[in-house]
Amino acid sequence: MSEKIISIRFLSFKGFSNKRFAFAQMGISLVNPWNHAGLLFSKHLGVGAGNGFSVWPNFSMYAFLGVFKSQQESDDFFETNVRWSAFKNQSYEIIGWYAVAIKGHGTWNASNPFEIATDPGNGPILVLTRASIVWYKALLFWFHVSHASKYLASKSGLLFAKGVGEFPLLEQATLSLWESEEILDNFAYKSREHAPMIKKTRALKWYSEEMFIRMRVLKTTKN
Known about the structure:
Number of strands: 8
Distance between the termini: 31 Å
Mean pLDDT: 86
Helix content: 25-40%
Structural class: alpha+beta
Radius of gyration: 17 Å
């Protein structure tokens, strides 16, 4: 049986009309989810301003995350889906990755579509951390996140990182790309910036739902 393929794209937009179109698509996706043969799960996500970890949105960038039954069905979506083609044609740059999940836990809207696959053992590591934030703890959460995220840009071995979300302030996720698992583990569990955040998360119980998925990159795509 084919392993599920995770496809992630970040799309950048220029010009008022293109940005307005992309913003409208963000709202449409909340009531009219993406649909295609073999598409098992999808999210249309906004991106934070600045380095991506901000309460303010970046109206020039959006992200798409899809889980497909197979690579073939993922390829078919990006080649033939009419809605995706319209979205893509308004953008000026797209960067993304194909990956398989190799480790993880938690739920996203009470489900977990990320089937753990056999690790191919090579390629960079993508990490998705996602959470629903308890509404009355949101300000405290964002205060700590904005402080900790300042250190990400200078981290050796970090290739890409953005904060993304479905709803401002309360439905948030982070997508980051690392050169290797060793570099990722050193940051996640040993760094003086990130390790304390893990402890605060457990102590302060910011989240009503959370998810962590580690993915092995199979291919990078850019156009």
